[in-house]
Amino acid sequence: MTNRLAEAKSLYLRKHAENPIDWWSWCDEALATARVQNKPIFLSIGYSSCHWCTVMEGEAFSDIAIADYMNANYLPIKVDREERPDLDSIYMQALQMMSGQGGWPLNVFLSPEDLVPFYAGTYFPVDPRYGRPGFLQVLQALRRYYDTEKAELQQRKALIIESLLTSAVLQDGTTDELEDHELLRQGWETSTGIITPSQSGNSFPMIPYAELALRGTRFNFESRYDGKQVCTQRGLDLALGGIYDHVGGGFHRYTVDATWTVPHFEKMLYDNGQIVEYIASLWSAGVEEAAFERAVAGTVQWLKREMTAPDGYFYAAQDADSFIEPTAVEPEEGAFYVWSYSELQQLLTPEELRELEEFTVSPNGNFEGRNVLQRRHSGQLSATVETALSKLFTARYGVSSESLETFPPARNNQEAKTANWPGRIPSVTDTKMIVAWNSLMISGLAKAARVFQERSYLELAARAANFILENQFVDGRFHRLNYQGEPSVLAQSEDYAFFIKALLDLQASNPEHKQWLEKAIAIQDEFNEFLWSVELGGYYNTSSDSSQDLIVRERSYADNATPSANGVAIANLVRLALLTDNLDYLDLAELGLKAFRSVMHRAPQASPSLFTALDWYRNSTLIRSTTEQINSLIPKFLPTAVFTITSDLPEGSIGLVCQGLKCLAPAENVEHLLQQVQKSQNRA
Predict the structure, then answer these.
(1) What is the 3-state secondary structure of 475-510?
(2) What would the pLDDT profile of 483-529 be if each residue is shown by its tens digit?
């Protein structure tokens, strides 16, 4: 027997369709029912590739006693955070206020009359363990508290909502303002320190920090860090580490160690888009490491083979777990990706196996007795090693990489277990289209196309962008999601910001054609109309006509696994001002930076993308030149430059370099032009 979630479009919600819990999705009817029945709301937020979300679904949410108590005493609501990042952001902040930490699954208890949280946690086991109470105990205790401690409940909620509102407004009274260049130096140093190799803990890509650290290397700031070396090391850790799938391409979410060896095996589109862009930027900055080009090419092949829909858009994610065999009850983490030593001995010649020990391969393995492949050295792989990796590809997929153009997704566990896979059973793929995540991938592909001069990368990016332009507008409004051809959920700030950036990145790859710029301008107009905060500056997470179910209206400024929407949006405004000569965009960028300046000053570790926006604002450079000259500049590392092709140049010159609102003397030769561009990019 299934519950309401059987009809949901979201893979994550459908995974809970057979729970005995009487789940609702987040909707007006659910909220009204909770008020009428005077039941506290149990709100559970997660996403399809979240390991502990899956564990809790199979344990606590499948327990009959827990379900009976939950159904009688609470109104249970399930939310896919990838559908509603606005809800997730608000209630994650509440959890962090209450406990000092966050994570998923995010489980929050709300009062039905005002949706204000009074308790929150992450994973709850069925029985007490891991220092955590059993879930039924938690439910019983909180229902007693809700019924009997009304005065304390109101006081607790008042403190939480006051904190949320204060945080949303960002009024902290900071008066000690730093000069722009010094503020930028502080942000750069903080981000460079954050990506400096550490000796403990998990290893995450943290690309917004790496991006700021790399762009700041051109300033030659006095610092305890060697910025170029730190940025190069981050690229090497990604391209050589076990976080990269050396057999099939694509990057996993993170590694569970400080050595970049054993990943948490899910692959997220948003990570891969950002990493491709960063590695391409490293290459353009002069770090031409062979492993970088191989990792980008392999990731694009994975994207085309496993993550691209027939219509051209990109799927959202692949799970960490997969089934060893069709009769298995539960999937195993990493099963699709790891290798026992005996398998390697069977598949490879002695010479191939010996040379494969350029990777971390051993009889004992490095992950539960099996091997995750991690390269020990940079540089070009030998032909023998490439042959060995090709054999492993064939063993995993059941066919050679040369003959496998498309590997169809397993859309759920049932498909994974029943399809006739020629090799291993793959992980489940979440096939929904998310505009923000597609946009990050489009930007990565556009950058890689410019740097590596690969036209096919640009074609792949353009096809995804055209799908969004042709399918994500309903009654003139931009929408965030697409489920098998059906758009859903009004776009949020990250969708607008990242897609406008993607369109500008496509424009930068082909400055002769203005269609991408024209689309960016039209979407920016809608963004400004529905999400700009006239009172405070910056962009709200949600539009003015779709915020009624939110207890606060936030403006995202902090970077997480993805860049902050406002950081990207402000940088876009500067780029649009340069490309259109419309100074209204520059006015908005200035107001946006002013709105978040206190955060940048007080907590530079929270907001690297805002510092990237400040870099654009301070050092923006417009290069007007001929097609030939601009094509020679496009692959170079010019992080705050935009290009306009023109034949109307002063006599005897090859180009004009403009800094914000002024232009320099016409450049008479290539050397003069490059000198002006480099100087304009560093206007300290």
Answers:
(1) CCEEEEEEECCEEEEECCHHHHHHHHHHHHHHHHHC
(2) 989 999 999 999 999 999 999 999 999 888 789 999 999 999 999 99
